[in-house]
Amino acid sequence: MSRRTIIAGNWKMNTRAADGASLAQGIADAVGENPTVEVVVCPPSVYLSRVADVLAGSAVGLGAQNLYPADDGAYTGEVNAAMLCDSGCRYVILGHSERRAILGETDAQISEKLAAALAGNLVPIVCVGETLDDREGGKTEAVVEEQLRGSLDGLDEARASGVVIAYEPVWAIGTGKTASPEQAEEVHAFIRKLLGELFTDEVAQQMRIQYGGSVKPGNAKELLGQPNIDGALVGGASLKVDDFVAIINAG
Ligand code: PEP
Asked: Residues 18, 66, 206, 88: is their CA dihedral positive or negative?
């Protein structure tokens, strides 16, 4: 089963209009028309349309960092799937650990967002991952399993293969600490086995599982070379054209 590698850059709340536009332009120019891997950038929502203009006609996809799971209406400050599509998005990150930790997002909310993303024809990137305490307490698999079961609750088997999972150990995000390729592969293999139980083995083989957590040009090749690692969700290193392109080229 060959799964197309997917490399996504999560710009978080780090870019403004001008530097985001030049970052997007630099990535689009370097990636060219037919990259072997799928490339996505996820700017802050206020800049989505502007980055969409820069990326128009390029092979780089546009993603959002969150959505609100409701149709248009009285939801002050929120943005829904239809609005993201309207702004040129094809992807959306859901349940990032920063949203879980800072904004108290729950698995139940993430499962609602997942349903809304799929109904709106967006490709969801659903994030899961354990904290350092979880890992040191031997709870990595239990935590990841609970997050996955909760976040994917209600997901129809027929739609599951279009969902991307991002395994992001919280202790490796933005810390410079990366899970070793063996540590990451162990959890990715566990996730794929669980996806086989939740859906079917065939669906699990089709689903892509990204690794995220201090991915850099120097460690990308080894991580992406693991059998169950199908891409990367990149924070810090996605803010520099050269670093992000080097990670893309390692895929
Ligand atoms: C992330 O934001 O999902 C992430 C993995 O960040 P970083 O690459 O900076 O660790």
From this structure: negative
